[in-house]
């Protein structure tokens, strides 16, 4: 499922995926065994994924997605029952209340291509805090702090409750684990739990390792040969305008850290560029702190990890920003121009655009990689630093073979 | 007469200093530690800020939380760019003394944490976020430099009366929506001192929102997507617009676009400018038609009507004539208006509880102007170029003489701002805090009684 999400699959595709995976892994002739398998595996996962903030976040995201799709597949009765079990503070509208807001409800429905509500539809009045997803998407009518939610949007309500409930449970599980169970179970469950969680998350590139670290004099060369498009764009803009806004500084800065650029070199690199626009004094005052912060040398000393594709794709670049994923955030015209600058033929660009249209941004990037390096990349790109590493590997192999 | 754009409070009060008299003073404009020291000594409204941040917990009510104010983070930026975070105080006096002593160039306000920020390290060992924000106003930050691609009069850090209407629009749209759609009542708008405005929503319900809910509100307001890397910046496709969007358009955006910005910014007067707008029309035959027409024509000077208005009329006529059936064209006019007017928020400021935001009544180091409140009811009258500056205020203090040694801001140009802050914002807020505290207290009492009776 994680794979499906990162490849940008649409909701109904995920739904189909869920059904398929369910059939494959959870089937059993005896229905109560199916339920047991379901319950047991959930709690095992709770144990495995409660132990750090990142693990919890990942698990919550997956489990919530799964819940959302399973909920959708249930009948209306079951859905209503679940809603009352969660004790949701919703109130169905009376007829007179409905009449008062009917027109506005209709307008909202039309704005999101949903059927118009009628006197018979059940509409709930809910404090907006309960349905952040619907509010964010402007999918509900809002009046004095209440959101007017249609029956078919109810999944969102329940999912939010589920997520909050699970989130609290995970924190409690972690407390118990660290205070008691981990020690008690050190010969039995603990080794299993620890092994299970590391096999799912890919490398996070927080500690650049085997490949050669790069220095400032290498940067232009490797940017040209091995940076993925998102980082090339940021890099080029930085060279061009001698400035990047915060989002861009974070995305590129952390990437460079992951690629092996040492703190001193990073400071020198950013300084050279920024001082052309704002002067060295201002750079030292206002920007160098943040760079050191990224390397874990300031503040709470968190060593920040470079952003994965998923994070970059879901970011929201605004005016004056150049971060984000070009396959998602660029117009077709600009993307084609950027690809051509990278040396991608127009025929390959057509394939890339096809992937983009289907919202498979990472596959689009993988295609680009394959075209530029004239070889296939079976693993698929899901992290800019992975792109860089793979690229460098190939180039080094070739230069060694040539010697 | 000077006009600070506040509502009709104290209409009978005579302005002691005219704008001209203020200007003639002997204190040069500027911003420095000496001026600031005087400002904090005599003018900064320490007590009002304390009362605000206490939300009624500084009174005598039995339900008060005496630890509340002490759990609020303040951060000071000092003269030498030293940055002091996690400052906290247990009383008005402590806050005031620290400000006077340290003379911060900037004061930021952070969230209320679960424990006193000064003691945060003790709790870090326990792990699992025991030290975390528990309350924080819902805040918005709107910065004029985010509109650089749609204003021609200034760019970057400058603002003038031609582009300020963009801020007026932002205030009107956001203020109305926060009250009408979200039901918030205690909203403070503040001039940021240079090129933007901040908004503080202080209802209890707002302060208790978590990050996800704040992000949802920020996204509710988000209409503008993309930047120079992707064409279409506003997409209003769909058979209808959400009521909030259509209302904002009809009540605010359209009006301001057609009556202020079109001419004020001369949006269609030159080829470079009108091309930007024509590029937003997805039908090349239409945009080509207009382009030809406008390139060729230059109205003779006897025409009375402004060329921008004439051209906008032509554009609207073609796009809205009813002959256009294509869905992308249906909303083209609205999309253009939105692009040039709709509020542009800094999402990150709103989304995170722990984001620090500058305190009202600070002085902006680059302009010397005070961050004064703006009355949303009369925001169209607000003039950023005549906001009191530090030097002006000190001059007024001088002229008032030693008889006024203790009354501080009274009698200066700051008086209107402080009294507006108190009467329109602080008093109603504290009143409702009291009501909230009462009802929470009564509910707890009733629960107690129930518990003791129920066995």
TrEMBL record, chain B:
Keywords: DNA replication, DNA-directed RNA polymerase, Metal-binding, Nucleotidyltransferase, Primosome, Transcription, Transferase, Zinc. One of its GO terms (molecular function) is DNA-directed RNA polymerase activity. Its cofactor is Mg(2+); Mn(2+). InterPro entries: DNA_primase_S (IPR002755), DNA_primase_ssu_euk/arc (IPR014052). Its EC number is 2.7.7.-. The keyword Metal-binding applies. The keyword Nucleus does not apply. Coiled coil: none annotated. Transmembrane segments: none annotated. One of its GO terms (biological process) is DNA replication, synthesis of primer. One of its GO terms (cellular component) is alpha DNA polymerase:primase complex. Belongs to the eukaryotic-type primase small subunit family. NCBIfam families: primase_sml. This is DNA primase. It comes from Amborella trichopoda.
């Amino acid at each position: 499922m994680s794979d499906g999400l990162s490849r940008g699959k649409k909701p109904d595709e995920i739904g189909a995926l869920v059904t398929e995976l369910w059939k494959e892994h959870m089937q059993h002739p005896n229905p109560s065994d199916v339920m047991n398998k379901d319950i047991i595996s959930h709690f095992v996962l709770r144990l495995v994924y409660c132990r750090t903030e990142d693990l919890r976040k990942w698990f919550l995201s997956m489990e919530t997605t799964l819940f959302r799709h399973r909920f959708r597949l249930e009948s209306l009765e079951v859905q209503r029952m679940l809603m009352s079990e969660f004790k949701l503070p919703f109130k169905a509208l009376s007829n007179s209340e409905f009449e008062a807001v009917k027109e506005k409800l209709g307008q909202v429905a039309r704005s999101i291509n949903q059927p118009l509500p009628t006197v018979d539809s059940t509409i709930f009045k809910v404090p907006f805090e309960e349905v952040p997803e619907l509010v964010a998407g402007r999918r509900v009518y809002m009046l004095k702090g209440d959101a007017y939610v249609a029956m078919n949007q109810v999944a969102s309500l329940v999912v939010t409750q589920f997520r909050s409930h699970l989130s609290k449970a995970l924190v409690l599980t972690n407390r118990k684990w660290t205070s008691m169970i981990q020690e008690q179970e050190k010969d039995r469950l603990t080794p299993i739990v620890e092994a299970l969680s590391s096999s799912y998350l890919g490398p996070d590139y927080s500690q650049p390792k085997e490949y050669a670290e790069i220095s400032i004099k290498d940067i232009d060369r490797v940017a040209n040969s091995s940076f993925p498009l998102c980082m090339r764009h940021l890099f080029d803009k930085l060279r061009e305008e001698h400035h990047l806004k915060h989002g861009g500084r974070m995305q590129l800065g952390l990437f460079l850290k992951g690629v092996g650029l040492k703190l001193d070199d990073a400071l020198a690199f950013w300084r050279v560029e920024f001082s052309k626009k704002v002067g060295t004094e201002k750079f030292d005052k206002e920007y160098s702190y943040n760079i050191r912060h990224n390397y874990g040398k300031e503040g709470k000393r968190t060593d920040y990890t470079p952003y994965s594709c998923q994070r970059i794709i879901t970011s929201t670049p605004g005016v004056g920003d150049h971060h984000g994923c070009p396959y998602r955030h660029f117009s077709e015209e600009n993307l084609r121009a950027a690809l051509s600058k990278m040396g991608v033929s127009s025929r390959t660009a057509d394939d890339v655009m096809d992937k983009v249209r289907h919202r498979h941004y990472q596959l689009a990037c993988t295609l680009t990689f394959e075209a530029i390096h004239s070889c296939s990349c079976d693993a698929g790109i899901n992290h800019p630093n992975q792109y860089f590493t793979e690229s460098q590997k190939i180039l080094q192999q070739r230069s060694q073979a040539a010697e | 007469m000077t006009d600070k754009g506040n509502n009709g409070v104290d209409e009978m009060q005579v302005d002691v200093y005219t704008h001209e008299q203020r200007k003639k003073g002997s204190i040069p404009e500027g911003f420095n530690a000496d001026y600031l020291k005087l400002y904090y000594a005599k003018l900064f409204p320490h007590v009002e800020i304390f009362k605000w941040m206490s939300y009624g917990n500084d009174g005598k009510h039995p339900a008060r939380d005496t630890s509340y104010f002490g759990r609020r983070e303040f951060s000071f930026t000092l003269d030498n760019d030293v940055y002091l975070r996690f400052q906290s105080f247990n009383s008005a006096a402590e806050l005031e003394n620290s400000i006077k002593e340290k003379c911060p160039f900037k004061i930021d306000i952070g969230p209320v944490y679960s424990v006193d920020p000064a003691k945060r390290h003790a709790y870090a060992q326990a792990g699992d976020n025991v030290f975390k924000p528990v309350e924080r106003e819902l805040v918005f930050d709107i910065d004029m430099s985010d509109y650089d691609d749609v204003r021609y009069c200034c760019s970057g850090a400058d603002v003038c009366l031609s582009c300020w209407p963009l801020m007026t629009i932002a205030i009107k749209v956001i203020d109305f929506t926060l009250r009408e759609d979200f039901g918030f009542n205690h909203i403070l708008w503040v001039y940021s001192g240079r090129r933007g405005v901040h908004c503080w929503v202080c209802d209890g319900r707002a302060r208790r929102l978590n990050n996800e809910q704040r992000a949802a509100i920020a996204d509710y307001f988000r209409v503008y997507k993309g930047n120079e890397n992707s064409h279409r910046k506003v997409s209003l496709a769909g058979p209808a617009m959400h009521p909030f969007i259509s209302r904002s358009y009809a009540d605010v955006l359209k009006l301001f676009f057609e009556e202020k910005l079109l001419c004020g910014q001369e949006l269609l007067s030159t080829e470079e400018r009108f091309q930007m707008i024509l590029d937003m029309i997805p039908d090349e035959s239409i945009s080509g038609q207009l382009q030809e027409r406008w390139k060729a024509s230059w109205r003779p000077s006897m025409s009375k009507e402004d060329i921008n208005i004439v051209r906008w009329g032509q554009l609207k006529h073609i796009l809205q004539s009813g002959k256009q059936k294509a869905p992308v064209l249906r909303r083209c006019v609205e999309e253009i208006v939105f692009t040039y007017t709709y509020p542009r928020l800094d999402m990150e400021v709103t989304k995170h509880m722990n984001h620090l935001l500058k305190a009202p009544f600070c002085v902006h180091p680059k302009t010397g102007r005070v961050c004064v409140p703006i009355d949303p009811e009369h925001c169209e009258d607000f003039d950023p170029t005549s906001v009191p500056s530090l030097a002006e205020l000190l001059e007024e203090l001088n002229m008032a003489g030693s008889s006024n040694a203790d009354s501080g801001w009274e009698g200066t140009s700051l008086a209107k701002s402080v009294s507006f802050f108190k009467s329109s914002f602080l008093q109603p807020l504290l009143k409702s805090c009291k009501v909230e505290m009462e009802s929470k207290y009564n509910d707890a009492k009733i629960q107690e009684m129930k518990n003791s009776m129920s066995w």
